[in-house]
Amino acid sequence: MKAQAIKYLNNLVTDETTKKEIDLIDFIKKCVREYAEEEKKPVVEWENYFEKLWKLYARKTEKQLAKKTFEHKIRGLNDEDCRKKCNGIYILQMKYMKECEENGTEMQYIKHYSSWLNANIPNSPHYKGR
Predict the structure, then answer these.
(1) What is the reported pTM?
(2) Torsion over CA of 107, 109, 114 and 116, rounded to 10 degrees?
(3) pLDDT score for 42
(4) In this structure, is the dihedral angle defined by the CA atoms of residues 100, 102, 103 and 105, taken in order, positive or negative?
(5) Potential cystine with 111: which of 35, 41, 59, 115 (Cβ 3.0-4.6 Å)?
(6) What digits encode the pLDDT tens for the residues 21-74?
(7) Could you read off the pLDDT of 72-127 as tens digits, one per residue?
């Protein structure tokens, strides 16, 4: 896909192309290359964090919805901010699990993970809805 886009952009340049147009085409090619490099990066660590936190949560229902909700909470954060937010989620989650245990909360009354996340963790500022 990247190669096709670059080839198409190269074909736009003719003898009649102005310097301004060439600069714009070069800029677009640079953006295409950078985007392609971003796509090659490994999966962000948030999926690993989710799996670890999911294992610690008592009520394991609706995992895909929980994963999607979790992603909304950390989407677009850099690695350091993601790590900090996940640590915060961990602390709050452990408090909730301890509270449920101390109160003898039956499994059916423990919130689904996605509901708990929505009630306790703000969305990432980069999340703009569906």
Answers:
(1) 0.64
(2) -110
(3) 46
(4) positive
(5) 115
(6) 888 888 888 888 877 666 555 445 788 899 999 999 999 999 999 999 999 998
(7) 998 888 888 888 999 999 999 999 999 999 999 999 999 999 999 999 999 887 76
Distance CA 22, CA 13 (A): 7
Tell me the C-alpha distance between 97 and 48, whole Å: 20
Q: What is the per-residue DSSP string for 12-44? A: H--TT--HHHHHHHHHHHHHHHHHHHHHHSPPP
| Higher per-residue confidence, 13 vs 45 | 13
- d(Cα 56, Cα 98) in Å, to the nearest integer? 11
State residue 20 phi and psi, 5-degree precision.
Answer: -60, -40
Say if residues 68 and 48 touch (Cβ distance below 8 Å).
no
Hey, what are 127's tokens?
């999340």
Residue 115's contacts (CB-CB under 8 Å, 6 or more residues apart) are: none
Candidates 52, 112, 121, 60; CA nearest to 88 is 121
The residue extents of the domains of the chain are 2-40, 46-120
Cβ burial, residue 65 (10 Å; 0-12/13-18/19+): middle
